[in-house]
Every structure is written in structure tokens, then in C-alpha cells.
Amino acid sequence: MENKHPYSELGYKIFFKIKPFLKKILRIKVVGVENIPLEGGCIIAANHRSHFDPPVINIVSPRPVIFLAKKELFEVPVLGWFIKKAGTIPVRRDSRDTAVIKKSISLLKEGFVIGIFPEGSRARPGEFRKPQPGVGYLIEKAKVPVIPVLIEGTDKVLPVNSKFPKLFKYNIDVIVGKPIKFEGISSYEHIAEKVMHEIRKLKGERHG
């Protein structure tokens, strides 16, 4: 039977079974997970500092999150196989990939969750990069709730150029904000800036 989902259903069933174990060994603490809708299409927009960010978001999310990732990652042994099974959408960074936008919007209308990193690439530890205008374009066209997420600590667990994670040494904090509204915002650039502003604001939230 053809898989109706863009990801491996069996793979995600197994993944969801072991999520409590992964959350414990990775020392993940999450606040505000109730802000992620339990049904309907939505976009999770997070800051980006490590290749560990996508799995961490999927560990804390009550629903599978389909990420957009640079095409080059699909060529990496083992990692490429895993992200394909996870339904990850390849993106060509050297051009405006309209096919990716169309596919993302189609999945959102079908009720799936799309994960994006507005910065486009990983930022330095403790820093934020300028968001990409294409993020605003996707958000404006999709017209679904956008959930801002702040991730801290993944850049210590799996720093840039590291092949293996440093387990049991650092904590990973995830703060999920309330859905963002975009009434009165006139340009894609302003939408992207608004998203990053809301992500940065989460840094001041206290953990419970």
C-alpha cells in the first residue's frame, strides 16, 4: 500500500516510542509545548545553531515535523538516508526553489507540520543570523499558524564540524512560543524579521 505520509510511518512510530529515552539522555528541557497545535497545518520556525536542531524539535513535538534542508545533506552517508525517511524536503540554496514552496504549501494544506530555520544556515554560538526573505514568502502564501521556537545548547552538544555528539555533558533548552500573527505586515522581509524577533524574545522567557 502506498504511504499517504511524506515520511516513513513505521519509522516515526518507532521514533515516538523512544522519544522519552532520547529526551532523557540528551537532557532536553522544554517549555510551552502546548503551543504546538495538535491538528491542522502549521509552521515551526526555530533558530539554528547545530545539525542536532531538527531531531531535537521532533523529540519535543507531539507531531512529526517535516523539515526543509539543504540538498547537500542528502548526499551524506547514513544522514542522507535518515532525513529521506523523515520526509525532509531538499532545498537548493543557490536559487529560489519554487518547487519547494509549492510542496511545502501543499503539505501544510493537508494538515502536516513544516519546520523551517529562518536564518538559513547555522549561527555562531549564542548569536542569531539575519533571516532569509524566502521565509516570509512561504509564510505569507501558506497562511497557517507560525510557532516560534528557541533552541539553546545544541551547539554545545554537537558543535559545527563535530562528527559525534557530546552526550551527558550539556543541557538542551527548548522554548515554544505562541502562534504569531501577521496582520498589517506588508513585505516578505518584514514577515521574516518578525519571526526572528519573536524567536529572540523567547530568550527572556523563564523556564518552569
Radius of gyration, in Å, reads: 16 Å
Kindly estimate the percentage of residues that lie in beta strands according to DSSP: 15-25%
CATH architecture: 3-Layer(aba) Sandwich
- Going by CATH, what is the homologous superfamily? Glycerol-3-phosphate (1)-acyltransferase
Mean pLDDT: 88
Task: Sketch the topology as an H/E string, one letter per element.
Answer: HEEHEHEHEHEHEH
CATH topology annotation: Glycerol-3-phosphate (1)-acyltransferase
Give, in spatial order, the strands making up the sheet with the most strands: 1-7-6-2-5-3-4
Q: Briefly, what CATH class? A: Alpha Beta
Computed structural class: alpha/beta
The low-confidence parts are none
Domain Phospholipid/glycerol acyltransferase: 42-154
Organism: Sulfurihydrogenibium azorense (strain DSM 15241 / OCM 825 / Az-Fu1)
GO biological process, one term: phosphatidic acid biosynthetic process
InterPro entries: AGP_acyltrans, Plipid/glycerol_acylTrfase
